Amino acid sequence: MLEADYIYLHALYESGDPVRMKGALAEIFRCQKEDGSWSLFPGGPGNISLAVKCYFAAKLMGMQLQVETTALTIVSFTSSGLEMLFSVTVM
Questions:
Q1: Section 74-89 average pLDDT
Q2: Where would a tag sit more exposed on the chain, N or C end, judged by fewer CB atoms within 10 A?
Q3: Secondary structure in 3-state letters for the chain
Q4: Which phi-psi region, left, alpha or beta, contains residue 14 (left: φ > 0; alpha: ψ -120 to 50)?
């Protein structure tokens, strides 16, 4: 998701328009699936790498994510057999 990369770069270089960065974050959450994960393409399965990337971009923007959002993402990846990998990454 390029919006997460956009946030990373501008957070790293302390540059960028705050309004555009908030817009990028809004787009990240607009693309979030109902189960809390993110997929690489519309209608695709949840992707662990993209979920971590989006979560980290939100944290860089100062968001305090609710437990429900994180729990849904973990449940999504638990059914795919990736629960330990994602649990370790989130913590």
A1: 46
A2: C
A3: CHHHHHHHHHHHHCCCCHHHHHHHHHHHHHCCCCCCCCECCCCCCECHHHHHHHHHHHHHCCCCCCHHHHHHHHHHHHCCCCHHHHHHHHC
A4: left
d(Cα 37, Cα 79) in Å, to the nearest integer? Answer: 12
DSSP β-bridge partners for residue 46: 39
Using a 10 angstrom Cβ sphere, with 0-12 exposed, 13-18 middle and 19 or more buried, the burial of residue 48 is middle
Rg (CA), the chain: 13
Look up the pTM and report it: 0.69
Note down the domain range covering 49.
2-90
As a whole number, mean pLDDT of residues 77-85 equals 49
